[in-house]
Protein backbone atom coordinates (compact mmCIF):
# COMPACT_ATOMS: atom_id res chain seq x y z
CA UNK A 1 0.00 0.00 0.00
CA UNK A 2 2.89 2.39 0.61
CA UNK A 3 3.70 2.45 -3.11
CA UNK A 4 0.34 3.90 -4.11
CA UNK A 5 0.30 7.60 -5.08
CA UNK A 6 -1.12 9.84 -2.41
CA UNK A 7 -0.44 7.41 0.44
CA UNK A 8 1.89 9.84 2.24
CA UNK A 9 -0.76 12.57 2.07
CA UNK A 10 -3.39 10.17 3.35
CA UNK A 11 -1.16 9.24 6.27
CA UNK A 12 -0.94 12.93 7.16
CA UNK A 13 -4.71 13.18 6.90
CA UNK A 14 -4.72 15.40 3.82
CA UNK A 15 -6.43 14.25 0.66
CA UNK A 16 -8.01 16.17 -2.22
CA UNK A 17 -11.36 14.70 -3.18
CA UNK A 18 -13.11 15.67 -6.42
CA UNK A 19 -16.02 18.11 -5.88
CA UNK A 20 -15.30 18.28 -2.14
CA UNK A 21 -15.65 21.58 -0.30
CA UNK A 22 -12.76 22.63 1.96
CA UNK A 23 -12.13 25.43 4.45
CA UNK A 24 -8.48 26.44 4.12
CA UNK A 25 -6.58 28.73 6.49
CA UNK A 26 -3.02 29.98 6.18
CA UNK A 27 -1.05 32.59 8.12
CA UNK A 28 1.98 34.77 7.56
CA UNK A 29 5.24 33.93 9.30
CA UNK A 30 5.31 35.36 12.81
CA UNK A 31 1.82 36.71 12.11
CA UNK A 32 3.26 39.79 10.37
CA UNK A 33 0.35 42.01 9.28
CA UNK A 34 1.26 42.28 5.58
CA UNK A 35 -2.34 42.45 4.44
CA UNK A 36 -3.07 45.71 6.20
CA UNK A 37 -1.73 47.07 2.91
CA UNK A 38 -4.82 47.40 0.69
CA UNK A 39 -3.07 46.57 -2.61
CA UNK A 40 -1.32 43.55 -1.14
CA UNK A 41 -4.62 42.19 0.21
CA UNK A 42 -6.26 42.73 -3.20
CA UNK A 43 -3.36 40.92 -4.88
CA UNK A 44 -3.97 37.89 -2.66
CA UNK A 45 -7.66 37.95 -3.56
CA UNK A 46 -6.78 38.01 -7.27
CA UNK A 47 -4.70 34.88 -6.72
CA UNK A 48 -7.71 33.09 -5.17
CA UNK A 49 -9.66 33.75 -8.38
CA UNK A 50 -6.81 32.61 -10.65
CA UNK A 51 -7.05 29.06 -9.33
CA UNK A 52 -9.05 26.48 -11.27
CA UNK A 53 -11.37 25.78 -8.34
CA UNK A 54 -14.56 27.50 -7.23
CA UNK A 55 -14.16 30.09 -4.51
CA UNK A 56 -17.28 30.06 -2.33
CA UNK A 57 -16.17 32.54 0.34
CA UNK A 58 -13.01 34.16 1.66
CA UNK A 59 -11.67 36.78 4.01
CA UNK A 60 -8.19 38.24 4.00
CA UNK A 61 -7.20 39.28 7.50
CA UNK A 62 -4.09 41.37 8.25
CA UNK A 63 -1.98 38.26 8.97
CA UNK A 64 -3.89 35.29 7.54
CA UNK A 65 -6.68 34.20 5.23
CA UNK A 66 -9.68 31.90 5.26
CA UNK A 67 -10.77 30.42 1.93
CA UNK A 68 -13.82 28.22 1.34
CA UNK A 69 -13.45 26.36 -1.94
CA UNK A 70 -14.99 23.54 -3.92
CA UNK A 71 -12.63 21.40 -5.95
CA UNK A 72 -13.51 20.49 -9.52
CA UNK A 73 -13.97 16.95 -10.78
CA UNK A 74 -10.24 16.54 -11.56
CA UNK A 75 -8.49 18.49 -8.82
CA UNK A 76 -4.84 18.95 -8.07
CA UNK A 77 -3.73 18.44 -4.48
CA UNK A 78 -4.92 21.15 -2.07
CA UNK A 79 -1.30 21.97 -1.30
CA UNK A 80 -0.75 22.79 -4.95
CA UNK A 81 -3.42 25.52 -4.93
CA UNK A 82 -2.19 27.02 -1.67
CA UNK A 83 1.44 26.88 -2.80
CA UNK A 84 0.53 28.66 -6.05
CA UNK A 85 -1.17 31.49 -4.16
CA UNK A 86 1.61 31.88 -1.62
CA UNK A 87 4.34 31.82 -4.29
CA UNK A 88 2.63 34.45 -6.44
CA UNK A 89 2.15 36.86 -3.52
CA UNK A 90 5.66 36.18 -2.19
CA UNK A 91 7.20 36.86 -5.61
CA UNK A 92 5.39 40.21 -5.96
CA UNK A 93 5.55 41.45 -2.36
CA UNK A 94 8.09 39.34 -0.44
CA UNK A 95 5.44 38.06 1.96
CA UNK A 96 6.76 35.34 4.27
CA UNK A 97 4.35 32.56 5.20
CA UNK A 98 4.16 30.01 7.95
CA UNK A 99 4.88 26.55 6.62
CA UNK A 100 1.86 24.56 5.62
CA UNK A 101 -1.80 25.42 6.05
CA UNK A 102 -4.88 24.08 7.77
CA UNK A 103 -7.73 22.49 5.88
CA UNK A 104 -11.03 20.98 6.85
CA UNK A 105 -13.24 18.97 4.52
CA UNK A 106 -16.84 20.11 4.87
CA UNK A 107 -19.35 17.31 5.43
CA UNK A 108 -22.74 17.25 3.70
CA UNK A 109 -24.48 17.70 7.03
CA UNK A 110 -22.40 20.81 7.89
CA UNK A 111 -24.10 24.19 7.60
CA UNK A 112 -22.24 25.61 4.60
CA UNK A 113 -23.79 29.07 4.88
CA UNK A 114 -22.93 29.09 8.59
CA UNK A 115 -19.30 28.26 7.80
CA UNK A 116 -19.23 31.08 5.23
CA UNK A 117 -20.69 33.48 7.85
CA UNK A 118 -18.01 32.39 10.31
CA UNK A 119 -15.34 33.11 7.70
CA UNK A 120 -16.56 36.54 6.64
CA UNK A 121 -17.26 37.68 10.21
CA UNK A 122 -13.60 37.26 11.23
CA UNK A 123 -12.87 41.02 10.96
CA UNK A 124 -15.80 41.77 13.30
CA UNK A 125 -14.68 39.18 15.87
CA UNK A 126 -11.13 40.60 15.66
CA UNK A 127 -12.52 44.09 16.39
CA UNK A 128 -11.16 45.47 13.11
CA UNK A 129 -14.61 46.77 12.15
CA UNK A 130 -18.09 47.00 13.66
CA UNK A 131 -19.84 45.33 10.72
CA UNK A 132 -18.57 43.23 7.85
CA UNK A 133 -19.83 45.93 5.44
CA UNK A 134 -16.96 48.12 6.67
CA UNK A 135 -14.32 45.55 5.71
CA UNK A 136 -13.18 45.45 2.06
CA UNK A 137 -11.41 42.07 1.81
CA UNK A 138 -14.11 39.40 1.81
CA UNK A 139 -16.72 37.89 -0.47
CA UNK A 140 -19.17 34.98 -0.62
CA UNK A 141 -21.11 33.55 -3.55
CA UNK A 142 -24.35 33.84 -1.57
CA UNK A 143 -24.24 37.65 -1.50
Walk me through what this model shows.
The chain is an alpha+beta fold. 33% of the residues lie in helices and 20% in strands. It has helices at 7-11, 38-50, 78-93, 112-120, 122-125; strands spanning 21-27, 54-60, 64-70, 102-105, 138-140. A five-stranded antiparallel β-sheet has the order 4-1-3-2-5, with helices on both faces. The longest helix is centred in the middle third of the chain and has 16 residues, at 78-93. The protein is globular and about 35 Å long.
Task: Give a brief rundown of this model.
With 143 residues, the chain is α+β, with helices and mostly antiparallel strands.
What structural class do you assign from the helix and strand content? Answer: alpha+beta
The low-confidence runs, each spanning 5 or more residues with pLDDT under 50, are none
Number of strands: 5
Helix content: 25-40%
Task: Write down the secondary-structure element order.
Answer: HEHEEHEHHE
Count of DSSP helices? 5
What's the mean pLDDT score? 90
Question: Quick one: overall form?
Answer: globular
- Sheet with the most strands? 5 strands, antiparallel
Rg over CA atoms, rounded to whole Å, is 15 Å
Task: Outline the secondary-structure elements.
Blueprint: H1 7-11, E1 21-27, H2 38-50, E2 54-60, E3 64-70, H3 78-93, E4 102-105, H4 112-120, H5 122-125, E5 138-140
Antiparallel strand pairs: 1-3, 1-4, 2-3, 2-5
Helix pairs in contact: 2-3
Question: Which key terms come to mind for this protein?
Answer:
5-stranded antiparallel beta sheet, 5 helices, single chain, 143 residues, alpha+beta, 5 strands
Amino acid sequence: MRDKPGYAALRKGRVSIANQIYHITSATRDRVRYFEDFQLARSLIKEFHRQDIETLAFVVMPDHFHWLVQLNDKPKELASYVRSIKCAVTKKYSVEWQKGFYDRAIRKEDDLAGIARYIILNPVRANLVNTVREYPHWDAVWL
